[in-house]
Amino acid sequence: MSPDDQSSHGYSASQRRLGHFCEITAGPSGTLLDILHEGPSGVPVVSPPDLTEELAVDTRRLRRVPYEQAERFARFTLRAGDVLLVRQGTLGRLALIGEEHTGWIYSSSCLRLRPDRRRILPEFLAAYLAHPPVQRELLAQAQPGTVPSVNSTMLKEFPVDVPGLERQRVVVAALADIDEQIMVQRKMLNQLTALRPSVFEQLKRGE
Predict the structure, then answer these.
(1) Nearby residues of 109 by Cβ (< 8 Å), 6 or more positions away
(2) Which of 10, 72, 123, 187 is deepest in the core (most CB within 10 A)?
(3) Element (H, E) at 106
(4) Alpha helices in 34-121 (DSSP H)
(5) Sign of CA dihedral 120, 125, 129, 134
(6) Quick check: 130 and 55 in contact, CB under 8 A?
(7) Strand duo 94-96 + 159-160: pairing
(8) What is the edge-to-edge ordering of all strands in the sheet holding 83-86?
(9) Which residues are CB-neighbours of 1 under 8 A, at least 6 positions away?
(10) Does the predicted model carry a pTM greater than 0.85?
(11) DSSP-assigned beta bridge partners for residue 110
(12) Residue 95's beta-bridge partner residues?
């Protein structure tokens, strides 16, 4: 797309379409729901409730597709570096897919974003889409209705402002440092919170 094409679509000089940076694929049709089960065997299927605020996948309540039927959904498998985004209901929730999720399937209520690593880092893409101002813009463009939704066509046209790869690496490293500090502080807070009841226990023993 030329700069003139970009401006004619309402993009600023520094913006591009999200579809310029990644391949976007909607999840399989609702027929997948008919064969899901909660047993321990089969291929895991990631659904919106499995995506956490930490941009990760909660594996505790995953449902599965029987192995003998999973091949039908080969086009909808996940691999490390994919970003999974909810497209119906709880819009904006997303997760960065890791090596441990490779080969899993995603539900019809999600969109798979597969970044072109020559243009955008998966970690940067996930963090960018989770950034509150970007989330607000995404929600503002959602299709109205009883259940707000976004689709792959709209998302491909979504304007994004993405720096060069070197700058992306700097941003990702800075965010990783911040996240590590948050984890340390959260652990300390939990420890201090756990100590509170012991103050009264000591008071009782002193009596």
Answers:
(1) 27, 47, 48, 86, 87, 88, 89
(2) 123
(3) strand 105-106
(4) 67-70
(5) negative
(6) yes
(7) unpaired
(8) 22-26, 110-115, 83-86, 94-96
(9) 16, 17, 20
(10) no
(11) 86
(12) 84
Query: Could you identify the residue written with the tokens 């970003």?
Result: 83
**Is 177 strand, coil or helix?**
helix
Q: Which residue has the tokens 């995404």?
A: 138
CA-wise closest residue to 79 among 25, 34, 119, 29: 25
Domain 3-162, classified CATH 3.90.850.10, yes or no: no
**pLDDT class of 14 with cuts at 50, 70, 90:** low
First-to-final CA distance of the chain: 78
CA dist., res. 39 & res. 67, Å (int): 12
pLDDT tens per residue across span 32-62: 767 888 878 899 999 999 999 899 999 998 9
DSSP alpha helices (H): ranges in the chain? 3-8, 67-70, 122-130, 132-140, 152-156, 165-206
Contact call for residues 149 and 142 (beta carbons, < 8 A): yes
User: Which residues, 6+ apart, have CB-to-CB distance to 30 below 8 Å?
Assistant: 108
CA distances from 134 to 10, 76, 159 (A): 16, 26, 10
List of residues 6+ apart from 135 with CB closer than 8 A: 92, 129
Q: Residues 145-201: pLDDT tens digits?
A: 767 789 999 999 999 999 999 999 999 999 888 877 877 777 887 777 777 777 777
